[in-house]
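Suppose a colleague, Dr. K., hands you the sequence of a protein chain of 144 amino acids and asks what its three-dimensional shape might be. Before reaching for any lab equipment, you can write down a predicted structure in token form. Begin with the sequence itself:
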Amino acid sequence: MTNLNILLVHESTDISTTKTACIVVRYFDEELGKITTSLWEYIPTIQERVDMENQGTAEHLYQLLIDTFLRNKISLSNIIGFASDGCNMMMGQHNSVASRFRISCPGIIIFKCICHSLHICSSLACKCLPRTCEDLARNIYTFF
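The predicted structure, expressed as tokens, is then:
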């Protein structure tokens, strides 16, 4: 795959406190003749017993992302989009993964994950509703 277009990244910590990053890519597959979404790689972002202080940084995560593309001979000029949740490490204005992509991939389109944005909007909207609405929804679910 040399036509990498959009990069979607989400970092998460599982129940065992292992931090990992899921990397999904969207690209035009010439064989299929359509845009395809694929899991690119699932990488640990923090390794025990190795310089723990610098592993939880945007610089470290950005370097992990770049390394995976370089290992697979994917040019950074092929990356035209980056999406992630809205946390500061990913989307901050000055010291984030997104700010680093803006420097290394001029013209890149940066956007926050629509699912995370929708979750935040719906959570804030629900706070404006009376508690009885939430109780009704829970009671219906429990009944069935």
